[in-house]
Amino acid sequence: MAELDHPIVELLRRDQRYRRGAYQFVFDALSFAQDKLGMGSAAPSEDDDDDDEPQRHVSGQQLCEAMRVYAHQEYGYLAKQVLNHWGIRSTGDFGEIVFNLIEVGLMRKTPDDRREDFDDVFDFEEGFQRSFQITAADGGED
Questions:
Q1: Are 58 and 40 in contact (CB under 8 A)?
Q2: pTM confidence score
């Protein structure tokens, strides 16, 4: 169980629009974007005072697309319903979650990143329902 003073617990108290799963999904989708899709380039953050390796920056638009792909991979045809259950109903909600995480120090941003970068990146209905393709396991047509 999470510690009561963990930043995510504070976010859940302060902004009740999103469930815990929404925050975990964003973290997982960011890792997916960087590790599996190869997204992100080295970029300094606003508070780049650490001496560790440079953070790999993924833009808001790139992250939205990675979240769409990751949700399809993880939840299939139910991706939109799962995200809706967590309070995510548009790409703008992805931005709200990311900037909540930035506010509590769990994510970073560059000076050029804005919350609005996530607005209207794609239509949720189109991105999660109509574009979902079911393919035959054998790849052939009968």
A1: yes
A2: 0.80
